Amino acid sequence: MRHALEDFYHYLIVERGLSDNTIQSYRRDLNQYQEYLSKQYDLENWDDVTRTHIMQYLHYLNDLGRSSATVARWLSSVRLFHQFLIREKIAQQDPSLHIETPRKERRLPKILSSEEVERLLNINPSNALESRNKAMLEMLYATGLRVTELVSLRVSDLHLTMGFVRCLGKGSKERIIPLGDMAKSAVEHYLDGPRQALVKKKATEELFVNHHGNPLSRQGFWKVLKAVSRDEGITKEITPHTLRHSFATHLLENGADLRAVQEMLGHADISTTQIYTHVSKTRLKDVYRSFHPRA
């Protein structure tokens, strides 16, 4: 059973071209699935897996308190895996067919207000690291990049004269995103000395580096974001995706076209982008209740 899993992961890398993070998610879900089947039912062949086995595992996940979104993601992984087994003639049947996907709880993304964004970006750099931090945060809010996309940027991806940045998103899909004047200025300042002070003599192509001059990691950016928000007295819990959500919501609130926002975010399906219109409507209701004399 393990051999088939490794073949599947190889398929995801070579033929599907998925990112490392996505593949790790598949690996985590399916490894736990295989371990459960082996321990609970002593199964040694994927063709022996039945619909009942999958339903029992779904109940097991529910008993563990997993959210409907987590269970839905897991079921999606299992379906793709069993389809792969049939295509490769490793198994003759797909036991995941006709299993209903749990309805996801619709949660509106948390965003920052314009005032909170101003506070977060209120960095007056006095050293190379602070210059880097300001450039990163300005760029994240100006472009709506995912944190993985941000830390993967190379200097050659910048086109500051034209005012845009090029990035590779999910599935290695390229997209071009405009840069606002504030973000452009912060990045130019970072490139004009501070970055070289961090890189020193290393031949590093990545745009954002740590204090050793090595490419900044996703975890490194998280630490920076937490530290800056704490220093600026922002008590709201902030993640890198909070800035991405804020980018999209603020654009739509100010009249941006939904299709344009979808393209900048790199969403394959516009229904994913439409959730930000619900955020805007919710915020309008909050403003109305707060300020209308007869609300």
Q: Give the class from helix and strand content and strand pairing.
A: mainly alpha
Point out poorly predicted stretches.
Answer: none
Q: What is the name of the CATH class of the largest domain?
A: Mainly Alpha
Cα Rg: 23 Å
Number of structural domains: 2
Helix content: 55-70%
Shape: globular
Q: What's the pLDDT, averaged over the residues? A: 88
CATH homologous group name of the largest domain: Intergrase catalytic core
Number of strands: 3
Largest sheet: 3 strands, antiparallel
Going across the biggest sheet, name each strand in turn: 1-2-3
Taking the alpha carbons of the first and last residues, their distance comes to: 61 Å
Please provide the ordered H/E string of secondary-structure elements: HHHHHHHEEEHHHHHH
Strand content: under 5%
What do you see in this structure?
The chain is mainly alpha-helical. It has 2 domains: 2-87, DNA polymerase, domain 1 (Orthogonal Bundle), CATH 1.10.150; 114-291, hpI Integrase, Chain A (Orthogonal Bundle), CATH 1.10.443. 58% of the residues lie in helices and 4% in strands. It contains 13 helices and 3 strands, in the order αααααααβββαααααα. A 3-stranded antiparallel β-sheet has the order 1-2-3. A hairpin with a 5-residue loop joins strand 2 (164-168) and strand 3 (174-178). The protein is globular. The model has no long low-confidence stretch (mean pLDDT 88).
